[in-house]
């Protein structure tokens, strides 16, 4: 850990860790062997198609031909979302950078940029979204249930996992975010999400620049290499509990959840892997913390995880992890011909390109 | 200096300081006695009026009644701009915060926010701008020719000046920006400014979210308390040289200058002080560096300053200083009923509120 980059502040806000607390299960976080002051994730989607559909193929072709370039992402993945926040199927990709300069060059000058900004995108008969997460290091945290399997941000250059002890208590997520030591990370809009007036994003581009402390969480589950007993336990026992928890978040604006997507990783042939992620955008992480600390649906997930960790010890092979970004203001969320209720179009304020 | 907040990175990009260089004149930078990861400046303007005009009074009243509130700015100033970048007179204000949370709360919830967002602003018969600079600490630098007089960002809470030796050579400005140790700070658009297609911002709100590394410089001059000889030298000899330098920047897109405003501080009675600032927005600081290193108009300013510093020594009482912000992407520049050519409307991409 000595040679990895990290930020710490002398606390003006007390940590949440109870005095003398020691976690029951080992956990890891991501670090980099060089300064990474900015972390970037581009979340891209095509709405209203299944993975094999023509629009999905065109979308993925446009991406694939733009990824392996000098300023391209360090890692990227493809998912299927059977039902997005509007009930439509979607094909989704995420791409990661650890250089704001490389990302901006790609964003302005790549072949993909030309494809994305083309007026033709409004005529494709599908919707598209582009949710660009540009996050200072001090506003992020990650946690992994084991140190070896790497996915998401963990596939960027010169990253490694380090063991932590900031886990296993309520508030640990916040404590892991360096800025939380000196900043309450509150939304200026409060925790409860109030949807804006109805907006119809069909037939046009709508851009939402996010309010301060809008938070993005990607929570992942990997059981591709699990032994049959643990895989069965995940699919039959843990996954239904996760689903009920996500249902609760989606259905309750008081949790701060603006929207949530359930994603299944696709392999290079477009086939589903035994690997999934929840991608959620929150107005304020305090609502998620409240749910985690008090709600039965989270207690069920949490107890199951701890019990299986203790039961299998180092043999535990269902891997869970997440990455969280509590964003500065004005991250750009763009929607092209999307269905009403897609993404941040739910809250506004909206803008549209001017000519 | 031990107890002040600062960020340093192990360099992967060489510093510009020549080997063994020692500056001829003492200089100071600003630090804070607590972590200040985000620095904020709101630049606000009313276009097309003189200081005494009704619209200027209404604008300043709206501001004054919103400043002394819990989340209000830590410091603010008022200026007159005899000719803005479109040739019109303007009354300008700047307000500073060192808390992103306080700023966002003010920005969303203050009385001023209600005034600013009101549709009535489009009917006032004047233009308005709001250029909101939200800058990570690692992307800023400041320099002062003496340690005691405080203005601009230097009036924020728990700030102090510390003596530096990163001054007096070409490239020192870049070397003082902490991130420059590991990041080239290049614009994805290159150095030379290419104006967008003509856009008419009259009669509507136009918002530009700035490209990565758009830079804002406020360069200040203070001779209010100068002895007559030095005041006369400033007004008769140095100021004309500064003016010619600024003319050059304004007239040459190759310097990276998008626009530039010459501002005179007003006192509490609305009368001009012997204190001025240049406020300039640049696409890439490399163009400014090139001008500073090579152009005759800068050499004239630079030589004059060094000579007067050596001539008067500690008696030198014409104070010069600047603050520079090399911004992350998507800082918000908003224009309401402004004249064509105002501010970042020159470059786009533009958006406008959607309903």
Automatic annotation (TrEMBL), chains A, B:
Key word Hydrolase present: no
- Write down the InterPro entries for this protein, in alphabetical order: OXD
Q: Which UniProt keywords apply?
A: Heme, Iron, Lyase, Metal-binding
Query: Which Pfam families does the record cross-reference, listed alphabetically?
Result: Dehydratase_hem (PF13816)
Q: What cofactor does this one take?
A: heme b
Q: Which domain of life is it from?
A: Bacteria
List the protein's name.
Phenylacetaldoxime dehydratase
GO molecular function ontology, one term from the record: lyase activity
Q: Which family does it belong to?
A: Belongs to the heme-containing dehydratase family.
């Amino acid at each position: 850990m000595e040679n990895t980059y990290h930020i710490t502040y002398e606390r003006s806000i007390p940590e949440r860790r109870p005095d003398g607390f020691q976690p029951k299960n080992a956990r890891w976080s991501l670090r980099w062997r060089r300064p990474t002051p900015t972390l970037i994730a581009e979340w891209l989607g095509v709405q209203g198609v299944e993975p094999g559909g023509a629009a999905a193929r065109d979308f993925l072709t446009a991406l694939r031909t733009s990824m392996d370039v000098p300023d391209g992402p360090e890692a990227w993945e493809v998912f299927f979302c059977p039902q997005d926040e509007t009930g439509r199927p979607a094909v989704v990709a995420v791409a990661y950078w650890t250089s704001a300069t490389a990302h901006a060059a790609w964003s302005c000058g790549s072949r993909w940029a030309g494809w994305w900004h083309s007026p033709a995108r409004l005529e494709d008969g599908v919707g598209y979204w582009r949710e660009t997460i540009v996050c200072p290091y001090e506003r992020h945290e990650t946690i992994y249930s084991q140190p070896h399997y790497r996915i998401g941000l963990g596939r960027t250059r010169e990253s490694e996992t380090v063991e932590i002890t900031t886990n296993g208590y309520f508030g640990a997520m916040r404590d892991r975010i360096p800025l939380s030591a000196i900043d309450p990370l509150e939304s200026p809009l409060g925790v409860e999400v109030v949807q804006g007036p109805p907006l119809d994003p069909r037939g046009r581009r709508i851009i939402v620049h996010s309010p301060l402390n809008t938070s993005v969480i990607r929570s992942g589950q990997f059981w591709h290499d699990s032994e049959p007993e643990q895989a069965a336990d995940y699919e039959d026992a843990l996954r239904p509990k996760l689903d009920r928890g996500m249902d609760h978040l989606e259905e309750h604006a008081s949790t701060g959840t603006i929207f949530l997507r359930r994603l299944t990783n696709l392999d290079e042939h477009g086939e589903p892997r035994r690997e999934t992620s929840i991608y959620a955008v929150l107005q304020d992480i305090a609502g998620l913390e409240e749910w985690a600390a008090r709600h039965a649906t989270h207690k069920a997930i949490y107890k199951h995880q701890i019990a299986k960790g203790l039961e299998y010890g180092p043999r535990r092979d269902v891997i869970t992890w997440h990455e969280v970004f509590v964003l500065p203001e004005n991250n750009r969320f763009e929607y092209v011909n999307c269905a009403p209720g897609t993404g941040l179009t739910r809250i506004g304020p909206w803008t549209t390109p001017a000519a």
